[in-house]
Write a structure and sequence with these properties.
The protein is of the alpha/beta class. The protein has a single domain, classed as 3-Layer(aba) Sandwich (Rossmann fold). 36% of the residues lie in helices and 20% in strands. It contains 9 helices and 8 strands. Strand 5, helix 3 and strand 6 form a beta-alpha-beta unit. The longest helix has 22 residues. The chain starts with a strand and ends with a helix.
């Protein structure tokens, strides 16, 4: 079920699926929560999954007020309040995982626990994070997932007429929003704040992540107070929940139960 709630920038798309304990899902660089297999997989494990779309993604209105990482974090704080997710557990991916960590650092009660899939936010000079916008669109797809066809819901056109125009605009605004979070470097000083994250954290990485090497899990674990587990999804890329939604849903369900 899709709700279109209101927040300061206008419309806020919130996808809700399943019954049971409420858990949030915060997308990464690709957003299609209402059609995404991972949401269905997690819901099938006894959860009500609430998946808001960040500003500029899907049918959530872009916001002219978002100029830097602090504006993004403030926007996420408002969004979890509107979506009814404040204090709930959150599964977050990629750029969404970075924002969840930033929010948890300044608002400790925001999440009861976090399951993070390949979060961005830290930087190592010996192993820099890849820039997904330094390549072609097809190259970007190959960086995001091991199997580029898994993100067809976002990158490929399945509509016609006005619906096709809307889909094209949504794809453009989503890529613009993503670029603001990862270009030129996805490093905004999280290393100076991450020690303030007090909720339990589970880390998940795709074994074939081409954007941020799986060894970054060690870097995050060294900074966080309470890491409950580290998991590698074999054969998955950066957006592991797209490559293997069942495996990531099982890890998340185990961590949240």
């Amino acid at each position: 079920m899709i709700d279109l709630a209101q927040w300061k920038a206008g419309s806020l798309e919130i996808w809700r699926e399943g019954e049971g304990r409420t858990v949030g899902y915060l997308h990464g660089m690709v957003c299609a929560p209402g059609r995404q297999p991972f949401v269905t997989e997690l819901a099938s494990r006894g959860f009500e999954v609430v998946a808001p779309s960040l500003p500029g993604y899907s049918r959530t209105a872009p916001s002219d007020d978002i100029r830097n990482i602090h504006d993004w974090v403030f926007a996420l704080s408002e969004i979890i309040d509107v979506a009814g997710l404040a204090g709930a557990p959150m599964v977050a991916s990629s750029t969404g995982a970075m924002l969840a960590l930033e929010l948890a650092a300044v608002r400790p009660e925001a999440f009861s626990s976090l399951v993070l899939v390949a979060p961005l936010g830290l930087w190592r000079d010996d192993l820099p994070v890849a820039d997904p916008f330094s390549t072609t669109l097809s190259g970007q797809r190959a960086l995001l997932t091991k199997d580029p066809t898994t993100t067809a819901l976002f990158f490929e056109d399945h509509e016609s007429g006005d619906a096709l125009v809307d889909a094209t605009i949504q794809r453009y605004t989503a890529r613009t929003a993503t670029a603001s979070l990862v270009w030129p470097l996805p490093e905004f000083g999280l290393s100076q704040r991450i020690h303030r994250v007090s909720c339990p954290v589970t880390l998940v990485w795709g074994s074939d992540d081409q954007i941020i090497d799986p060894s970054y899990a060690d870097s995050f674990a060294a900074c966080l107070r309470d890491v409950r587990g580290r998991h590698v999804v074999n054969g998955a890329g950066h957006l592991a929940e797209w490559d293997d939604p069942s495996a990531v849903a099982s890890i998340a369900a185990s961590a949240l139960n």
